[in-house]
Amino acid sequence: MNDMKEKIINEIKKIYDPEIPVNIFELGLIYKIDVIDNKKVIIEMTLTSPNCPVAESLPNSVKENILNIVGIEDVDLKLVW
Q1: pLDDT tens for residues 19-55?
Q2: Which run of H or E residues covers position 45?
Q3: pTM of the predicted structure, to 2 decimals
């Protein structure tokens, strides 16, 4: 695993599902992380349920945390079921 992907995973691990005291990475909500030229990140993730109370804020938190990494310019996040 490259250094940038590790940084991304570390940022994602800071985000916890509000109903379960487990971070969303270890919970298995992140399906795919692709890094393009260490600048763009493509994420595929899901939520714990379609009626998840944080359905709007959780993906935004993922994007914001990843954009805090030096060098990352864009995050394309796809919500999949």
Answers
A1: 888 999 999 999 999 999 999 999 999 988 777 767 6
A2: strand 40-45
A3: 0.89
What are the Cα distances from residue 17, in Å, to 10, 14, 33, 54, 74? 15, 10, 19, 8, 24
> Can you tell me the distance from the alpha carbon of 48 to that of 2, in angstroms, rounded to the nearest whole number?
28
Question: Which residues on adjacent β-strands are paired with residue 79?
Answer: 45
Q: Find where tokens 């945390």 sit.
A: 65
Residue 5 neighbours by CB distance under 10 Å: 14
- As a dihedral over the C-alpha atoms of residue 12, residue 16, residue 17, residue 21, rounded to 10 degrees, the angle is 140
Residue 67 has a CB neighbour count (10 Å cut-off) of 13
Taking the C-alpha atoms of residue 75 and residue 39, their distance in angstroms, rounded to an integer, is 9
